[in-house]
Amino acid sequence: MNVTVTDMMQARESRAQMQRTLLETYGHTLLCFTMNIPGPVKDTPLIREGMALGEQLLRQGFLRLGIVPLHDLRREAVTGCEHFYVCPASPLTIKRLCADIEETLPVGRLFDMDVLRPDGRKVERSEIGLPGRKCLICGEDVRVCARARTHTVEKLQQKTEALLQAAITDDLCTTVARLATQALLTEILVTPKPGLVDRANSGSHSDMDIFTFAASTASLYPYYSQCARIGAETRNETPEAVFRRLRAPGRLAEGTMLEATGGVNTHRGAIFSLGILCAAAGRLGRRNWQMNALLSLTAEMTRGLTGQDFSGLTPETAVTFGQKLFLASGLRGVRGEAEAGFPLVRHHGYPALKRALADGLSLNDAGCAALISIMAENTDTNLIHRGGPERQKAVASAAAALLRDRSLTRSALEEMDRDLIRENLSPGGSADLLALTLMLYFLEEQP
Fold first, then answer.
1. 262: Cβ–Cβ under 8 A, 6 or more apart, which residues?
2. Where are the beta strands (DSSP E) in 88-187?
3. Quick one: which of 421, 436, 428 has its CA closest to 370?
C-alpha cells in the first residue's frame, strides 16, 4: 500500500508522542528503531523480515552488554514498523551498540536507530566519533544526495531490495547451518544411546569416538549452509529440481567429512537427510519452519528417488549393501524414508521428543526417548548389515518393550547398550533420524 506525505507526518508525530511518554514514564535511555525505506511503500513482507533481523541483532547486543530493556514495545503500521526499547544503560553505550549494527553490516544502512537521552535530546553519531550516514548508492553524505536528488527513487528501491534480500538469505543460511550442526552435536551428546557413540563410550564402533564426530560435524557446517542457500535460491523451481542440485554438493561433503575423520564414515546418512532438510528450510523461509511443512517438502523433493537410483539394478551390478538389500527384500532404507516424508520422525521420534520435554525431561533424556521410539519402529539397515534381519527385529522388539513397560530408565538403556556392544550391533540409521528430529525441534523453536 502506498503511503502519503500526510500519513508519514502523522506517523512521525505519533512516534514523537510515544517517545515523550516513555521518557516521562521511565526516565531512562530510549532507543527507537525504524527502517529507512525509500518510496511510497513502507511495509511489505520483505521489509518486515529486515526489521526482524534488526530486532534480532539488537537482542543479541543487549545480551552481550547484559542489558534487559525496562520496556519493549513494537508497533506495526502501513507507514512501517516501529520498535521502542527503554534501556537502563548510558545513552552513549546504546548508541555504540546501534552504530556497530549500522556500520558493520551492509543492511545496517537501512536501519534507523535513534537513541534519546532521558531529557529527550538525541545522541548524534559525531559524539562517538562517526561521520554522518552514507548514501545507499554512491556512499557520499546522504544529506547531500537527498537535497540534490542525485538518485532516482527507483534506483534507491532496487538497492534497498537487494540489500534486504542478501541480508535475509545470508542470515537464513547461517541459522540453518548452525541448527544442523547443533543437531548433530546434540545427537552425539545424548547419553546413553545403545550401541552408539556417546559421552559414555564408543558403542559398537572401535574406529570412532566423540571427538571424531566433533571433527566431522565441524567440517559439514559449510555444506549445510550451501544446502539452505540452494533451497532459498531455487524457490521458483520444482522441488525435484532442488534435490538434484543437492546431489553434487553432497558427494563433495562426503569427501570433506572423510578427510576430517581420517577416512571414518561418521555422517554419510546425515549428509543426505539433514542436507535435504536444510534445503527445505531454505526454500520455505523462517515463517514456515513447522515440522509438517518441512517434512512434506522433503517428500516432494525426493519423489521417485528409489526408482531413479535403483533403476536397472541387478545382482551383478549391485555393489553397496543397500543395493543388495533392496534387490533381496525391497527395503528402501533412507531413500524410502525421505520419499515418504520421514514418517519415523513425523510419527514417532518427534512426538516422543516433544512429549518428553513437555513432561519436564531434560533435552538429553528426551533425546533418549526419541531414539528408542525410532528404534522400535525402524527397520534399521545398519543393524541388518551387522547382525542380519532377525537381530534387527530383536533389537526393535527390545526397544518397543522399553516403551511398552515404561522402563525407559538410564539403567535399562545402559543394559541395552552393553547387549548391543557385546553383539557389535549399532542402530546408526536411527541415530541419523534422531539428528533429524532434533533439528526439526530447533527449527520450530527459533524466534
1. 212
2. 111-116
3. 436
The DSSP secondary structure of 293-349, one letter per residue, reads HHHHHHHHHTTTHHHHHHTT--TTT--SHHHHHHHHH---HHHHHHHTT-HHIIIII
d(CA 260, CA 214): 10
What's the mean pLDDT when you consider all of the chain? 94
Q: Is the pTM of this model over 0.90?
A: yes
What Cα–Cα distance (Å) separates residue 57 from each residue in 60, 123, 172, 281, 371?
5, 20, 14, 21, 35
Q: For residue 82, what is the enclosing H or E element?
A: strand 82-87
C-alpha closest to that of 157 among 244, 37, 73:
37
Q: Are 433 and 189 in contact (CB under 8 A)?
A: no
pLDDT in tens, 217-230: 999 999 999 999 99
Query: Which stretch of 29-43, 144-158, 290-304, 406-420 has the lowest confidence by average pLDDT?
Result: 144-158
For residues 358 and 360, what is the distance between their CA atoms, to the nearest angstrom?
5
CA distance 128 to 305: 58
Helix, strand or coil, per DSSP, at residue 75: strand
- Whether residue 30 contacts residue 115, with contact meaning beta carbons closer than 8 Å, is answered with yes
Give the Cα separation of 250 and 220 in Å (integer).
Answer: 10
Residues sharing a CB contact under 8 Å with residue 138, sequence separation 6 or more, in sequence order: 145, 150, 151
Scored b (16 or more CB within 10 A) or e, 398-416 reads: bbeebbeeeebeeebbeeb
Q: Residue 239 and residue 252: Cα distance in Å, rounded? A: 21
d(CA 41, CA 52): 18
Cβ distance 343 to 336 under 8 Å? no
Instruction: Enumerate the H helices of 27-90 as residue ranges.
Output: 45-65
Residue 421 corresponds to which cell in the numbers above? 556392544
Helix (H) or strand (E) holding 175: helix 153-189
Q: Residue 278: is its pLDDT beyond 90? A: yes
